[in-house]
Amino acid sequence: MAETSFNGPKSLKHLFLIQTGISNLDFIPVHNLENLESLHLGSNHISSIKFPENFPTQNLKVLDFQNNAIHYLSREDIKVLRQATNLSLNFNGNDIKGIEPGAFHSKIFQSLNFGGAFNLSVILNGLRNSTTQSLWLGTFEDIDDQELTSAMLEGLCEVSVESINLQKHHFSGLSSTTFQCFTQLRELDLTATHLQELPSGIEGMNSLKKLVLNVNIFDQLCQINAASFPSLTDLYIKGNMRKLDLGAGCLEKLENLQKLDLSHSDIEASDCCNLQLKNLLHLQYLNLSHNSPLGLQNQAFEECPQLERLDLAFTHLRVNAPQSPFQNLRLLQVLNLSHCLLDTSNQHLLAGLPNLRHLNLQGNRFPDGSIPKANLLQTVGSLEVLILSFCDLLSIDQQAFHSLGKLSHVDLSQNSLPGNSIDALSHLKGIYLNLAANSIQVIPPRLLPILSQQSTINLSHNPLDCTCSNVRFIMWYKENLHKLEGSEETTCASPPSLRGVKLSDVKLSCGMTAVGIFFLIVFLFLFTILLIFSVKYLLRKKYQHI
After folding, report:
1. Which end of the chain has fewer CB atoms within 10 angstroms, the N or the C?
2. Average pLDDT in the 71-76 region?
């Protein structure tokens, strides 16, 4: 490449030279790169990160060398980057086998990624006396790395770091000593590290705010020994590989916990969730989605009165009380109950949620496929987003949503609703309305003003009638294309001659044709003659007796 290759752009900030076969950084022209902020050199044949002396690094924020052939980092290599501040440096997939002592001495980074390295002790010893906010040391399933021991992690004691990722590693002789150099951490990610339990007696982890234990093999929640991490605000145990027993009070020492994700962990409980979530008074987000059946009693979340977001999607809920299990959650704003096999005939199910803004009831069936005037939605008048897709709905009472005056987003897609169901939305204005994939054939002219007062409408994948009986709607559709989404999939189902044609392309001629006019004239002519003869006949009959 010529030295003037990048002369065109006036302020080049991001340069991607991925999979270009580069083996030497001298290949990169340095002219006009003074403003460069990110340089991506992944999947090449680079063996040394030594830049030319005049390479402008003062504005670099991201330098990506992932999946190259870099095995050794020298002082000279890193020295060239001394002008860059808060740099994110990525050596993922390079298998660094050696770092010259002092190469990273007193260097400050935003993030460092040494993913896939065979020997982590080499990395940590090489990073002594450096500072980074994030350190990614995870490995991958196709890499045969060494098991982690306490000795291998000792170098971490001399690295200033806030966040560490150790995904997919195996620990050997896991004990409280393993964590002795983790005391300064604020975030620790141990995803898929084959953990059956965390050792008791871990000390000094008072700074840890976020702990990720996804895809491990715990049998019971108490096996994480939560008391060792008293300052936690975020805890993730998602996708546990065994059936996870929540136990009783396993997290009660986490008084500051705000976010808890226990999804995809095959959790089952006949009486959830006060005993299991004891003393989580500051919890704001709880995810129990994709689990086994949960039984809910009155005020099932009494121990979590500060909840703002609750996700129970794809978890069969057995509500064992006549009152709402959510009635003490006065701050709850988002509730996901999709595919929960709910008893939607229980009108008190959602009582006590005065601040609920977003409700997802996707995949729950209503009795006889109908939402009556008196229904479970009457108690959530603050709703702004309502999702009722895949509910096998056949009809909606005209007054069913009458108490929901604040709605701005209504999703009724993937049901079997006819055109007259739009009547239930007559009191709403300026909303996003999704009616895709229903059974709408004809929309009567009287309902067109309801559609006109909405902001965005999706009518795609409906069996729309494109005959003159629906001409008023078709005319309205063409005049309001700016309001409609999914127009490419909004097509005719009948008559057969127009099947598959986009509604916006339909041209109907519903006036009187020339042939029709001819036959009308002939009909009127014959009718007139018949009338004249009839009158003559009646008059003759009347006067023949005089």
Report:
1. C
2. 94
